[in-house]
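Async update (no meeting this week)

Hi team, since we skipped the sync, here's where things stand on the single-chain job. The sequence we agreed to prioritize is pasted below, unchanged from the tracker. I ran it this morning and attached the output directly underneath so nobody has to dig for it. Comments welcome in thread, and please keep replies under the output.
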Amino acid sequence: MDWVGLVLALTIGALSSAVLVANNLRDIPTDTQSGKLTLAVRLGDTGTRTLYQALLAFAAVLTLTLIAATPWCAAGLAATPFAMRAARPVRSGRAGAELIPVLRDTGLTMLVWSIAVAAALALAA
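Output:
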């Protein structure tokens, strides 16, 4: 595997993890009540919100790194508006059902990023 493959794997992994972290953030109150010791419960609300935003930022930095492989990978930045929309409720402290759109928008971020970067790499080949 070359460095591009590693960066691609890390980026999609970060975005996938962000979806899971968003879901676990929403579930902290009920998981705490039922005694589930998820990572989100252990990190707490603030720590989980920080982790979510760090995963999105990490994916963005890795996308910029991919531009070294081919400038076409800048197409992955097309996912940025979805990531920003997804992070807004997390940053503003929304909770419960108000976090459901975060799951949708994080999934859309991952979908748009995947299609854009795959197309970019196909064009570069």
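Quick observations from my side:
The mean pLDDT is 97.
Helices lie at 3-26, 28-34, 39-66, 80-91, 100-124.
Reply here if anything looks off.
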